Amino acid sequence: MNFHKKCQLALVLLAASASNFAAAQSLLNASYDVAREFYKDINTSFVASYKKSTGKDVKVEQSHGGSSAQARAVSEGLDADVVTFNTSTDIDFLANNGLVAKDWTKKFPHNAAPTSSTMLFLVRQGNPKGIKDWDDLVKPGVQVVVVNPKLGGNGRMAYLAAWGQVRKKGGSDAQAADYVRKLYANVPVLAKGGRDATTIFLQRNIGDVLITFESEVISVDREFGTGKVDAIHPSTSIVAENPVAVVERTVAKKGTGDLARAYLNYLYSDEAQEIAAQHAIRPSNPAVLKKYASTFKPITLFRVEDYFGSLAEAQKVHFADGGQFDKLYTVK
Q: What is the pLDDT at residue 5?
């Protein structure tokens, strides 16, 4: 084969390689802090499922941080194709900035929340402080690790769970505010996100109890080894939905709209719902939820709407600058 033909063949092979590379679309999912392991397993499963059903190769990449910090990053230019958060207000923020459809809650089933969680307590092995319920968290000498509610959904849900459990027991808003003030007086440092809170608790060895999502129990066992913590299920806690949305700005630019929708729809599949349950994230599929009844302990649950109107209203009243949290919390 002469030099000219060799060059032609090389160009053909290079073009074919470039074509194959271009065909393998990539997707970026901007997600909340403690969902790393869950989405690692989801992505592996989705890539295989998508290949099987379409014959196409795809790559899914992840970005994790406090939910609100992630929303701001997307707003400021992070080219996420989809967002999978733990509070609707962070997606509302993107919708209000024109990055997500205004009617995003109608784009997918269950108000675009394929999974949910709740808040519980992680204590050190053997529960040395004897913590059983919310009242124990405001006792003298108990240090509580929690996420800053102005930075992440984990922290907002912990705050609303603490406030709402007082109301659920028949208490007034004034009594709830008094309880929350006492609770945050026992907080030595506010974490930036859910995983940061876990690191503070386990690696820096600060605090007696960590308020976090139910799913963090399994994550801690996998990352730090079983037996480091005990999970305490309080008598009452909050439903924390995990909403999802397509970032219209990004998919319009990258041409990934169909892929982004396929990815989020996959979260409702039986396979994905099983993966959620295996990570102690509550599936929306009732059959899968029932199957994992031993994972999801019975807790009296209330919804944000029961005591706060909506998450958007709670955001204004409690977490906006100068709101209830700023009035109740004294910076250490």
A: 52
